[in-house]
Hints:
This protein is mainly alpha-helical.
Amino acid sequence: MDIELLFQTLLKLYVMLLLGFVLAKVRILDEHSNRSLSQMVVSVTYPLMLLYSMAGQPGERSTALIVLGGGFVFYLVMIAVAKIAARLLRVPEEKRREFECLMVFGNTGFVGAPLAQSFYGNAAFYEITLLNFAYYFLYNTYAVKLLSP
Length: 149
């Protein structure tokens, strides 16, 4: 692993975070602009990065389906592991749902994807996105249902 490349990538991410913090403190960014920027990242930037990473990728569709299926298997196993861990650690019943979600649904997309892309190129971003499809699907179905009152 190239430590310098890791440092450069993390430095870029932290500079962007710091810039957002400073812009919010001096009131250039407000709640409305934060929502708009977040919506732009989720709806425009991330999908465009996916399309860019897919352009000209060698490989068969069956490989993509295996990676996609592997993502679902991984997250379904993680859900089972989280349920078992919550019982073994004796997490109180009223906190168990939040505990399980926190164990399963970490921030793998907006930090993990840029790191993987910087280390391994566009093919890695494509494969990370395929793996994360299961994450987003289960997060927007299972986690929302689990956390609903």
